[in-house]
Amino acid sequence: MERPTALIRKLLELEIFEEHLLQQMRKLKQQLQQQNISILDRSNQASDIWIQYRSGERVREAVFMRAMLDAEVQGKIRQWTGEKE
Prior knowledge:
InterPro entries: YhjD-like
Radius of gyration: 17 Å
Order of helices and strands: HEEEH
Pfam families: YhjD
């Protein structure tokens, strides 16, 4: 059982982490807008995420494999939090 202050500290760390994530999302959305890139459609499946987007005057599609995205995110979370596998 963890000490109450340890749990509170983890909560505060996650709140700060959330603030940074939201700030990064705002910056990225601004960058997409500045480069005239917009997401037109999106489909989330168990194995992948399909995106239809406009880049300038062209409409394109991209498929991102969920397993790869999950692995990349888990690696970043471990890096940010210092957690081991």
